Amino acid sequence: MVKEILDFLQIRPGQKGLDATLGYGGHTRKMLEKLTEASGTSELTGEVHIKDDVQTKGDSWKNPEENSEDNSRDNPADNPADNPEDNPEDNSKDKLADNSENNSEEVFREKAPEGHLYALDVDPIEIVKTGERLQKAGYGEEILTILQQNFANLETVAKEYGPFDFMLADLGVSSMQIDDPKRGFSYKADGPLDLRLDPQHGIPASQRLRELNREELIGMLVENSDEPYAEQIASQICKTFKKGGSMDTTTALREAIERALCFLPENKEKKDILKKTCQRVFQALRIDVNSEFEVLEAFLNALPEALADGGRVAILTFHSGEDRLVKKAFQQYYREGIFEEIATDVIRPTAEECRQNGRARSTKMRWAIRAGR
Questions:
Q1: pLDDT category, 176, cuts 50, 70, 90?
Q2: Domain end among 289, 318, 335
Q3: Count of Cβ atoms closer than 10 Å to residue 356 Cβ
């Protein structure tokens, strides 16, 4: 969907834009390429600075050394009730961006003096790695500013750096986070049951589970992932704690889910049911730990003031709950005359993209254009 995103945003040299979800940096790089498109070449030499709470932290990179790495990202997943074939555990963003970058290649291009892209990410670990990749690709501070910020803080960011001519929010979790067992996002690998996008703030999922009673657990599982076995799973988790057990690792939670579904007949379907149930439970818990719906609502509330007149915003969602929030906000702003045009329907990946990536079909894109004030 990269083409659809760029075609809609209509990025031109000299504009000011915001990538609200930096992630691996695939979409960021594509937007930077558009932002700096022009004839002629001149070398850009600068540093990428990461700023925290809109204050410079002093982190920068000059000719960083980086080993080649797997640039693949897991595929996005939707609400499991909408698409049971998808993998809610992955719910990964940036998959449809082109990650086949040659990081060792020098990049030369003409400067766009007034153009600038701001990029946000809450993850203090991955933001540094992505900043290094973009720096190595030739995108320095004269064209790119990376802010260690949750996109819920859009209002603060926009007051400091906006308004923006174009914005992109690509929701979800990156494969960099999922593939790291220490982050606790995957039931497939043993690790601490954490699930925080920002491990420096908030509480880990293991602690969150201890805070919820059975009814609250059921509500969380149903609301965040439409879990059909919510009652059995919540009962098993509470039973484990009551007996003095712990739920500190991904393996412990997976085993609790398996015990909760022990009543299922032992047949070839049970393995698939267990897999999808684990995916839904981990998704629901991740959404809860990171307050993902509340974060999205804060972002949507700040959109009107963050966009310049005629500014364009595109949002990619991978969960039906996220899409409902975006659709509702866009329709409200359109009725109020704040948005002059909105998508009448979601844009989905092409058949070819779905063929190459089966789970990509859960991606939904909505867009809007800011009316003049």
A1: confident
A2: 289
A3: 12
* Domain termination residue (choose one: 289, 304, 331): 289
Residues 328, 180 contacting (CB under 8 angstroms):
no
Alpha helices in the chain (DSSP H): 2-9, 26-35, 126-136, 154-161, 175-178, 205-211, 214-225, 230-242, 250-260, 268-289, 292-306, 320-335, 351-356
Segments forming the whole domain that contains residue 111: 2-176+292-370
Q: Point out the least confidently predicted range of 56-60, 147-151, 236-240, 257-261.
A: 56-60
Burial (0-12, 13-18, 19+ Cβ within 10 Å), 253 = buried
Our count of domains for the chain comes to: 2
pTM: 0.80
Taking CA atoms, 175 is separated from 31, 50, 71, 134, in Å, by 21, 21, 9, 18
| Count of other CB atoms within 10 angstroms of residue 354 | 15
Among residues of the chain, what percentage have pLDDT more than 70? 78
312 neighbors 9 (Cβ within 8 angstroms)? yes
And the tokens for 210?
């201890």
Least confidently predicted of 5-19, 165-179, 207-221, 222-236: 165-179
Do 238 and 304 fall within a single domain? no
Residue 1: per-residue pLDDT: 84
Inter-residue contact 369 to 311 (CB < 8 Å): yes
Q: Are 59 and 147 in contact (CB under 8 A)?
A: no
> CA–CA distance from 182 to each of 105, 149, 186, 274 (Å)?
32, 22, 10, 23
228 and 156 in one domain?
A: no
Mean pLDDT taken over the chain: 83
